[in-house]
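Quick illustration, no need to memorize.
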Amino acid sequence: MDWLSRIFGNKIPKAVFIEEYERLFEKPIPPMRPISQLTFVLIDTETTGLDHKKDFIISFGAIKLKSYVLKIDTALEIYLQTPLKRKEAIEVHEILDTGNGMSIKEFGKQFLKYIGKDIIVGHHIGFDLLMLEKALKPFGLKKLLNPVLDTQYLAMRLEKGPQFDLSLGKPGEYVLDSLCNRYGIELDDRHTAAGDAFLTGQLLMKLLKLAEKKGIKDFGNLIR
């Protein structure tokens, strides 16, 4: 049991910005809405390590996509204050000092306002979601409510079918680098949150076009 639970029991008071975010989901996205009318928010996090219970977010990057176009003016990169630094993680993302970074509370406000009720997209997105939910838990968030799309899963579904077992495939076949190479996307600014979000956005554009060719043309068939 963590210190928040000891103080408040199992119920943590919700901050106003959490309540405002949750109210956005009173009306769900209609299943028949065409993909061209959906807004996707590509996200990525760089962290102090890969243990979602012990590690922290160092930087967050995002960009939005609508009508098969990446909206460059929506690109976002935020560095956060973190109490932990690990040599192994620094060797990957090369972020040394976040002492002047944004506070978690201010990040939470900006992050939730930015994503709204758009579709969250990332590559191997589960870890990023765990880290973001952990960061916002002290303010009363239990779970992010947005629809979620993982480009790793979408690529496997489109290329191999929805029942494909990743463990039976070639090692590294569906990591971001391999998919970018396969779809003709130039690897640039890799292992930065903003750079990886932009790469994932380019990959998503390619995958959505492929999905359309395979008859997947609306929200209901895309998110399942």
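The chain is about 40% helix and 15% strand.
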